[in-house]
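Protein modeling request. Please complete all fields; requests missing the sequence field cannot be processed.
Requester role: graduate student
Desired output: 3D structure, token encoding
Chains: 1
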Amino acid sequence: MTTKALINNIEKLSVTLNEGQLIQFLDIMDAMAALLAEAQGQDIAKQVQSQAEFSAILPVGIH
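Delivered output (63 residues):
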């Protein structure tokens, strides 16, 4: 699903929700965004760590 389609679906859904439901829905969306950001941060940290470990085993130079 494209971002535009997702936004359209969320807009259509939000029209059908009352204020309380909309607040809960937006809280869930915020939590999901925070989890995604955290997961992406962990992925980056793992990549950096893997690169550092790989660099540590590479020969410094050819003699």
